[in-house]
Design goal:
By secondary structure, this protein is of the alpha/beta class. Helices cover about 50% and strands about 15% of the residues. About 40% of the residues are buried.
Length: about 1050
């Protein structure tokens, strides 16, 4: 009988055989795992088990009951070997299978943490290994899924509590952002463990609490973390903790995590009975809430803090406490949002909605439509992780891949899983971009798009812009508006340096920044050579450079002039010329009108308006310029950029609260200048304190004089504006007026005790050598010797070669030839002064008094001027106490926050904040005269209003150079027009009160006082006979009272 061959096995049969084989191998390994002789054998078998499961597919963990088997044996009370083997098996699976197995292994965490309390040391060690292996799998976005397991474990045996606290502490370092968001939930659970009677638990809780609180990353709170954690554990320390915190100056931005740490302490302290605790608590609450920039951060804590503050407002016995609590409550409510925000609320899809989207994409991309329990579990886990990605507003594809792809790859090919994730991330990225476009007011934009990017921007420890959008269209001119310190210049600088994420590269878009810098460049070069030496213009020929310079006004002799000798306006025009030559797509203009005269501002406006393809981003505090140039306004609103169509006027129509851009108001910022001290011999505000007569001055090496035949006078009542075109000699006149420069012809007289506060045109030069100091430290340095060191260090005060030769000249005194060593004293001599002179090589008893005029005639001008300056400065210092607290108050009087003055280095201050520091320093020694060269540069409208009102109300003389017609027109009735070195005087009246927003209120107040006085009847003056008769009546009444007693009749 012929033999019959067996048919070849089918694919299905082979698959069944493979599954059967792998199943038997897994079962065999599991059986071996529970009976191993040593732990090393268990680890080896666990690794083989992981390899077998990987070969069979992760689904086998469920289908073949691997996890159920391991979980059952891990709690087998009868066999320690089985428990150890099962736990090491879990360890091996975690090591071998990696992140895709995370949704299946993470639910075993409670079992493993319970094993920390096992009686057998090998089991406990195995449990620690398994927990460490599982916790190495998740991405940071799985943190929310892990926390419930840890919170549950904190209610079990003390060993399990310690293990959970240790795991939570380590999570703080691997997922700090997610732990920070979860702090409001974490802190109560860990606080309960701080109070645990078991010492091991309370110690572990202290370490854990310190770790999780550190993620708040607040530099003001960080030094106090040990104290705060100790206070959470021991409520009796609340009073001491609050007292120590009250000495802390909070300056860093306060976020939700920082509030989560502080709110439990503040809530408890507000309910204390001692006013010594309650008072500083209200102050701390107020200070913290002032630093909250995102309403969501403060809003979540309103229910906890508001009741305590409201109770104090209603029931506190001390009026001061009620007042402080009322202020703190207002600040808290304001920080938490007023409920009238027009911004679109970002809706985050739920886990179920994300899972539905994933199902749809899996069907489209991988043709996967049948979801069993295994696939559903992984899908749901991926959806929950993606939800957390959206919570932190992360839309980078790489982060989405970490949070989703490994879990989808357990039931579809990895490349398909990655494609699904990429598509989903793009959908949400595009949707978020559209939402931000709509939120920013850009959804109706038309034209050619220059750039559109989503980004965040931080400076130091402060978030300036958080998840916002910048969309610019070609040919548009955008005005960037916001308060001083909002980050306007920082944004422009970041764009120019390519440090804004998602912004086009320089190859795609050329952005050029134009600002008042020229720092680190050789300003000794002539203008043409200076521009040609710029490396960025190496491919531009000299004819093109000269043509561009000619276009902005550099012609003839001006091309050969040294850059360092240019006025501020011409330096700005030079920067503009360089930008034109760079053929920019985007022109970034930072205060372009600073130092420009009216004619050049008009030229700049016409130039920008004529450029149809050039896009401009402008920061300027010149409201007229923004009105004439801008097609759109970009406004900083709660760390977002919001776009408004139209110029500044249209913007103010839509945002009435921005009216301060047009009026000089003290509603938001108030300046206060110290009153000038008494000047000897000046009994009237109209008497001259400084005079120039027939003065002419030319710079060294220049044949044409910058000033010619100038005669002017200044009194304490003077309010003078010096105007004229760029380069006309305005700043030169100021230098001659203040003694910075000595004229070749004519005479400058000033009162010997006159103190002058001087803010130079390039105000920052005062601070360039002190950028590491705080404003408070700078003023201490400047006046610590009792003199103004800025004045002493000026070049005009230093003795040059000619002065040193003059000091060697001997003069005849009382028949002997003597040489001057220094001046030692000063006293009044008729209408002038005489000075005590110390002679070289002679004892003090031979000192001689010489009249001021004689010393000036002999050529000792600098010696006399330096002595006068020193004496005047010392007199001014006599009115001041050079202590940090007094300096802080003085700086606050010029509109700069005291916390910034005490804690922020000047390197990090905005331009407007630096100007305030310079003004504060100039006003420290109570000057009689204030000289401001371009004071409006860098100041926002609120600060400009504060400065204007302070000048209006101040009792000293003011001389200013400014191209801001609104500012000058409101303050200066007297105008000196300087043109080509010649001066013309115009007008002499009073300050224009109509330009001030508070003019109506001030007039009403004045009228009320006048009416009050007018209503009182004038008292008739008594004659001598009337006075005698009155005295007789009074004596009679007094005698009657002495005899009869009773109530004494009052004198009338």
């Amino acid at each position: 009988m012929p033999s019959r061959e067996s048919p070849p096995p089918s694919d299905d049969n082979m698959a069944v055989s493979a599954i059967t084989g792998s199943s038997s191998a897994i079962n065999s390994l599991l059986a071996s795992l529970y009976t191993c002789a040593t732990s090393d054998d268990c680890v080896a078998i666990a690794a083989d088990l992981g390899a077998a499961v990987r070969a069979a597919g992760l689904k086998s963990l469920v289908s073949q009951g691997v996890l159920d088997n391991l979980k059952a044996e891990a709690v087998n009370k009868k066999s320690g070997l089985a428990r150890e083997g099962a736990i090491l098996g879990i360890y091996g699976l975690a090591r071998s299978l990696g992140q895709p197995a995370e949704p299946l292994l993470l639910p075993l965490l409670p079992v493993l943490l319970d094993s920390y309390a096992d009686k057998g040391a090998p089991v406990r060690d195995a449990a620690e290994m398994a927990v460490a292996a599982i916790m190495a799998l998740p991405s940071a976005y799985s943190t929310r899924l892990i926390l419930p397991y840890l919170f549950d474990a904190m209610t079990r045996k003390w060993q399990t509590m310690v293990g959970a606290l240790q795991v939570l502490g380590k999570l703080a370092s691997t997922a700090p952002e997610q732990i920070a968001l979860a702090l409001p939930e974490i802190i109560p659970h860990v606080t309960d463990r701080l109070h645990d009677t078991k010492e091991e638990v309370s110690k572990a809780a202290t370490v854990c609490m310190t770790s999780v609180c550190a993620v708040a990353n607040n530099p003001d709170i960080a030094p106090h973390l040990p104290m705060l954690v100790s206070c959470m554990a021991r409520p009796e320390e609340v009073a001491d903790c609050v007292q120590k915190l009250s000495a802390t100056t909070f300056v860093a931005e306060v976020t939700g995590p920082a509030l989560a740490i502080m709110v439990p302490l503040l809530t408890r302290a507000l309910n204390e009975r001692s006013m010594l605790v309650v008072r500083p608590t209200t102050v701390i609450t107020d200070n913290l809430c002032k630093l909250v920039r995102d309403p969501k951060d403060a809003g979540q804590f309103l229910p906890q803090l508001l009741p305590g503050l409201t109770k104090l407002v209603d029931t506190a016995s001390f009026p001061e406490i009620r007042q402080l609590a009322s202020v703190a409550r207002s600040t808290l409510v304001k920080a938490g949002g007023d409920g009238h925000d027009v911004q679109l609320i970002r809706a985050i899809p739920t886990d179920a909605e994300l899972a539905t989207r994933l199902r749809g994409l899996l069907a489209d991309v991988a043709d996967f439509k049948k979801f069993d329990a295994f696939a559903t579990q992984s899908l749901q886990y991926a959806a929950t992780s993606l939800h957390q990605v959206l919570v932190v507003e992360c839309f980078a594809d790489v982060e989405w891949q970490k949070a989703c792809t490994p879990y989808l790859s357990t039931f579809v090919p990895e490349d398909k899983a990655a494609e699904v994730t990429s598509r989903l991330s793009k959908q949400f990225r595009d949707a978020e971009h559209d939402r931000r476009i709509k939120e920013s007011g850009l959804d109706q934009e038309t034209g050619v798009e220059l750039c559109s990017c989503d980004f965040s921007l931080a400076y130091g420890g402060m978030m300036l812009l958080n998840h916002t959008t910048l969309r610019l269209m070609r040919g548009r001119r955008y005005g960037l508006c916001g308060a001083n310190g909002a980050g306007k210049s920082t944004l422009m600088r970041a764009i120019s340096l390519g440090k804004v994420e998602n912004f086009p590269s320089p190859d795609e878009l050329r952005a050029v920044l134009v600002e008042h810098s020229l720092q680190g460049e050789d300003t000794s070069l002539p203008v043409l050579e200076f521009v040609a030496s710029d490396k960025r213009l190496k491919d531009v020929g000299r004819p093109a450079i000269q043509a561009a310079l000619s276009e902005v006004g550099f012609t003839g002799e001006r091309l050969e002039q040294q850059v360092g000798n240019l006025s501020g306006g011409w330096k700005m025009k030079l920067e503009l010329a360089r930008a034109i030559l760079m053929d920019a797509d985007l022109l970034l203009l930072d205060e372009p009108t600073n130092h420009l005269d009216v004619g050049n501002v008009a030229w700049l406006e016409n130039y920008l308006n004529s450029q149809e393809k050039l896009t401009c981003l402008v920061v300027s505090h010149d409201s007229g310029f923004l009105d004439n140039v801008c097609t759109d306004i970009i406004h900083y609103e709660r760390k977002k950029l919001v776009f408004y169509k139209g110029n500044l006027s249209k913007f103010v129509e839509r945002k009435p609260e921005a009216k301060s851009y047009y009026t000089l108001s003290t509603e938001n910022v108030k300046f206060y200048f110290p009153p000038p001290a008494f000047l000897q011999g000046i009994n009237s505000k109209t008497k001259s304190i400084l005079k120039m007569t027939g003065v002419s001055y030319a710079y060294p090496g220049m044949t044409k004089p910058s000033l010619s035949g100038v005669t002017v006078g200044i009194s304490l009542a003077s309010r003078v504006a010096i105007i004229g075109p760029n380069g006309a000699g305005k700043s030169t006149m100021i230098k001659v007026l203040t003694g910075e420069a000595i004229p070749q012809e004519g005479q400058v007289w000033k009162h010997p005790n006159l103190r002058i506060g001087y803010v130079a045109q390039h105000a920052f030069h005062h601070l360039d050598q002190h950028l590491e100091k705080t404003p408070n430290q700078y003023i201490q340095w400047r006046y610590q010797t009792g003199e103004d060191r800025e004045v002493l260090e000026k070049e005009s005060r230093k003795l040059n070669e000619q002065d040193l030769k003059q000091m060697e000249v001997a003069i005849e005194v009382k028949g002997t030839m003597r040489r001057v060593e220094y001046l030692i004293g000063r006293q009044k001599l008729k209408k002038s002064f005489q000075y005590e002179v110390k002679w070289i090589g002679m004892m003090p008893k031979h000192n001689t008094w010489i009249a001021r005029e004689k010393l000036l005639e002999l050529g000792f001008q600098k010696l006399v001027q330096a002595f006068d300056d020193r004496e005047a400065s010392r007199e001014g210092q006599g009115y001041r106490e050079l202590s940090p607290s007094v300096i802080r108050k003085h700086i606050e009087d010029v509109g700069l926050d005291g916390d910034i003055a005490d804690n922020n280095a000047m390197r990090g201050l905005s331009g407007g904040q630096k100007v305030k520091v310079v003004i504060a320093a100039a006003m420290w020694n109570n000057p009689h005269m204030l000289v401001l060269d371009e004071p409006t540069n860098y100041l926002d409208r609120d600060s400009l209003g504060g400065l204007a009102c302070a000048i209006r109300d101040w009792g000293g003389a003011v001389v200013m150079i400014s191209h801001n017609e609104e500012f000058v027109g409101a303050l200066c009735p007297e105008v000196w027009n300087v043109d080509a070195g010649l001066l013309t005087k115009q007008g002499k009246g009073v300050v224009n009160e109509d330009a001030f927003e508070d003019a109506v209120a001030e007039e009403a107040r004045r009228k009320k006082i006048e009416d009050k006085h007018a209503a009182k009847p004038k008292k008739k003056k008594l004659t001598r006979n009337d006075q005698k008769a009155r005295d007789v009546r009074r004596r009679a009444r007094h005698a009657k009272w002495l005899l009869e007693g009773g109530t004494k009749e009052p004198d009338t």
